[in-house]
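Q&A log
Question type: sequence-to-structure
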Amino acid sequence: MIIRLTYYSKSIRPLLPSDIEQIFRVSHHNNKILNITGFLLYSNNVFLQCLEGPREAVNQLYQKIYKDDRHDDCNIVLISEEKERIFGPWSMGGLPPEELVKLEVLERISPELFRGEEILNLLIKASKILSHA
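Response status: OK
Response body:
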C-alpha cells in the first residue's frame, strides 16, 4: 500500500520559469531516491501537487514542503491509502508553461473552490496531456 497526498499552496511571490525548472529538477532527483511519484502544477502563484509513495517518505517530504519558504497557506485536501500509483511514470511530472493553456481552468484557479478530488482530477488530466506531448 502507498499513500496519496494532494495539496495546494500559494507562492509568496511570482516564480520565474527557471525557478519552476529548478523545483522539478531537484524534486525529480530526490523523489526517485525516496520512491515517491507525483505531479505538480504551478499557475497564477498557486501550486497544486499530488505525492504518492511509502507513508513515511511522503509524510517526511510533505513536512519539508510545508516548511519551504517559497510558499505559504499549504493545505492538504486529500489523503488516502492506495494499492496503485496514478503518477507512476514520474518521480515528479508537470506541464511546461506553454502546455498549461490546455487546462483552461488554470487561468481562473482558486483552490479554495476545489474539493480534493477535483484537484486530483485536474492533475490527472494534466498528466494525460504530458503523456501525449
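Response note: Strands lie at 2-11, 37-43, 46-53, 71-82, 93-94.
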